[in-house]
Amino acid sequence: MVAGWTWDDTLFSGTAAYYQRGRLPYAPRLADTLADALQLDGRGRLIDVGCGPGILALSLAQLFHEVVGLDPDSGMIDEAGREAAPAGIADKTRWVRARAEELPAGLGTFTVATFGQSFHWMDRDLVAATIKGMLRPGGALVHISDLKNEPRTVDGLPHPPVPYAAMDELVRRYLGPVRRAGQGLLPQGTPGGEAAVFARAGFSGPQRHVVPGGQALVRTWDDAVAGVFSMSYSAPHLFGSRRDDFEADLRRLLREASPSGRFSERQPSTEVFVWWRDPTEL
Question: Does residue 8 sit in helix, strand or coil?
Answer without folding.
Answer: coil
